[in-house]
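P.,

For your records, the input lines for the assembly:
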Amino acid sequence: MSERELLPTATGRRTASAVGELLRPRRLLAFSAFGVLTAATGVGLLTAPLLGHIVDLVAEGSTDFTLPVVLLVVVALARGAGNAWGLALVSRLGESMLASLRERFIERALSQPLERVELAGSGDLTSRVTNDVAVIAKSVREALPELGRSALTIVLTLGGLALLDWRFLLAALLAAPIQLYTVRWYVRRAIPLYAHQRVQDGAQQQQLLDTVGGARTVRAFRLTGEHVERVRERSQTVVDVTMRAVRLMTRFFSRLNLAEFVGLSAILVAGFVLVGNGTATIGTATAAALYFHSLFNPINAALALVDDAQSAAASLARLVGVADLPTEREPERPAVPVDASVKAAAVSHAYVAGHDVLRDVDLDITPEERVALVGASGAGKTTLAKLIAGIHRPTSGSLALGGVGLDDLGHAGTRRTVALISQEVHVFAGTLAEDLRLAKPDATDEELRAALEKVGALPWVDALPDGLSTMVGEGAHRLTVTQSQQLALVRLVLADPPIAILDEATAEAGSAGAKVLEKAAARALEGRTGLVVAHRLTQAAAADRIVVLDAGKVVETGTHEELVAANGRYAALWAAWSDQRE
Amino acid sequence: MLPTGKSVLRDAVSGQRRLLAGAAFLGSVHQGGEALVPVIVGIVIDQAVSTGSVGALVRWIVVLAVVFGALSMSYRFAARAAERASEQAAHGLRMRLARRVLDPRGGAEAGRLPGALVNIATGDAKRVGVVNTVLPFAVAGFVGLLVSAVSLLRISVPLGLLVLLGTPPLLWLTHLVGKPLERRSSVEQERAAHASGVAADLVSGLRVLKGIGAEAAAVARYRRTSQDSLAATLRAARAHAGHDGAILALTGIFIAVVALVGAHLAANGSITVGELVAAVGLAQFLLGPFQIFAWVNGQLAQGRASAERVASVLAAPPAVTSGSGAPAGNGAGRVRLRGVTHGSLDALDLDVEPGEFLGVVAPDPAAAAHLLDCLGREADPSAGTVELDGVAYTELDPHELRGAVLVAAHDADLFEGSLLDNVVTVSRDVDRALTASAADEVARTLPDGVHTLVAERGRSLSGGQRQRVALARALAADPPVLVVHDPTTAVDAVTEARIAGELREVRQGRTTVLVTTSPALLAVTDRVVVLDGGAVGAQGTHAELVHANPGYRSAVLS
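Structure tokens returned:
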């Protein structure tokens, strides 16, 4: 098996320009969000000078505080309203950009050739669509507004300090080198540490799922001691890593405390000097000190978010990488199949050069014929199924569906012509009807019921708490493996392609379920050309023709009776299944 | 005594009391220090800036440095101690939960999905632990409150009372404003999270979608979900923004009131200008401790609810009672069921002779499951007895019993580790087991052979590969009595035929029960028993039954 080839990740520049592309149609929104938030923050900064003014009034011996106090109240109200409005605008901007991006991501991800996704491992795509989207969403929801607001407060407060007296600004900026250094120091350690922490959390989760989900097996094999030890190890690692993260964070805040002290003392000393030489009033010095004191929280908040921002940027690059993937190339004028035949001529295939999985396979299936593939694992049954379904292209030889080569048919045409139902069962989360309508979006309830009836699934569907509207899939009503696989066959009936391939579609169900599924599969294949990879020989015996594969080659082919009479491999297998023996 | 929510929470806290006491003390020092910063700023304004005294300036800057040093260091170690207490308590709970779930007597998983149990062991254990993080902060917040109250009252009694008595109603007001918004937003955020669930679901069903050409329909569905979720998120975001804005406005007004009263007091000389500055600073600071109380309250409520969930697992009644005996080391491996009634089994009598290779056909899948439950002692029958070599199951310790009778379930899980790690769990003769189950062929197709890592509980292997590895594990354990359920349903006919022959040979002389309807496997058994209506309906060799029993033919061959 070859190395995993992960899906692409966008470069920093491409990620930035992708954000630009998302931002462009929302320019107006972006400007108003920024404007409103700036105005609100600016108004808020009037609080400190107004308090300073009150101090000055007291120092002058005046008692008329009405105006500054009323202004303080007005400022509070304006600031509150402005912040609420501005934050709502920022959320709208961020969230709608995220929605566009995730929609494009899913569109591109689902349209990638299966071969490409499998090369990367399906976990790659899943982790991008869950973890990376979650990281970005969290940033957009929590970090972005906080960061924006804090950054604006900092910039405007520093501006306010400069307005009071440029020397106050200078004093405040003495803290900046310490802060910049601290952030660099922190980010360099935090990003790998938090990534490590997430991995360890995941490992613990996986171990617990292993142990708890397999509790019965653990007990049966008396592995309790070993598994408790495994859980302890994982859990202890999580504790250790978390404590490392806590130590890092507390050291980070300690350093920021130092910056706070340096800045605050500098401002006080500056106030002392400026009041002393008469260039500033006590009120101004007070305002400057209050300004700086009120910066403690926004600065800490903004700096602590830097690592969030960095992980969000990394996640964004992984999303953009997939969203930028080209879609499949379609032929200019796709050919139309003339019938439902399948023709494979001298087909060979190798996943790794030199290791042929299939060798010179010729197979002709006439319209509506039912062919069963029999052979040991590794004989090439699944590979042949995938080649005919157009998921892989053969290394050599040619494949035609309805007399048209797969390349002329195009990807969309191929999928309309042939369906592949594999042993992988997946019930899509949502109502049962929604699941089925993936195969035929405009199907009426009557059509759905007819399709269910056809494969014999209607009785149990009607017995579900809400029938077709029952919520199924992850976290909802759990269907049995047999029921889930029956749904796959219902989807086949609804999608209604002329050719269908069932690859071990009955394998995961127990022996009782397999029989139910065999009947269902036979009904679902009615009126179609069918290629069935059969486990149970009864399924093979019911086919029009049986093809026995061994080590990538067709070794026997014929009807059940012919092969039994020939006394070859198939006949030997059949012996246990027949009642002809004594 | 059975654990309750209260006892779980109490244990979690009292187990970490040293760390908690340390964290509470240091946290208080930190809060006190934070409260002193505005006070010192006021003093500097009063005694240095207003008077021009360099000595006073230097003195108070040094004091400020000391206060900063103290508050910084105390926060650092308080946070560490509190987090450690929290993490250790959570770890302790996880271990108790793991031990309870794996207890040989079982019963903890009853009625709970594995995912839900894992959530209790991670999320709920963590939330109980977090109580340890918040308690020291609650103490510290109280100390901060006390320090600022004393400072304020020393500055001026009326001003102090205004701030102290004004803050709780202010916070209560913001709470009132926030409550409906918070409630609405949590519902909406849940709906928002749904979009990510749908996306992951579609991606994990990618092969199924591709198989029937349903990509376009899936994209259209996702787009709708994404837009619904966007609308919900925006409603939630607006609610949050409104809440934040309201808090800002209310705080600002409160500060204005404090400034107004303080200014009048300063104007008539009751307080100094510096004290006015300190009072305004303290009013701002005081919001902190009160917000901490609200937060602590919320966390405690969550911790209590989580502790209840943890306790419900710990206190789950065991599925079977435990005897104290151990099966004889050199037992013959005779299993006897007498009048066993359990689920769909109805007064079942069954004898498995030592060394016999017995096939059991249960046309009703429930009967097969219930038989396996009784044989593996996952459940005790409601009537009747199961005996191993003449000793009743109930007299044996379930853990010891499973050393003699191994039930290999149809859907047996593999564990993280290499293919080989999974097979050598108990035993010695691994090579023979690997060949007999055709797991050696599985290994040959994997990149690193038997050393290939098995991920996601074996889901990285195909169904047939997983079954063969699981079978190899059961064979390698080499128990005196082996019960195997449908071991080859996902294995191709060619390989199944090979396994059937090998299986018989490997188990030569040891008792083996095969619960299956596969003719290839049944053909190699000594005797086949057909369950009908929960009791033995027919028995004989596979060939005899195939020949003479139409019911058997339809159950096995059709």
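Two observations worth noting. The mean pLDDT of chain A is 87. Chain A has three domains: 7-164+311-329, 166-279, 347-577.

Regards
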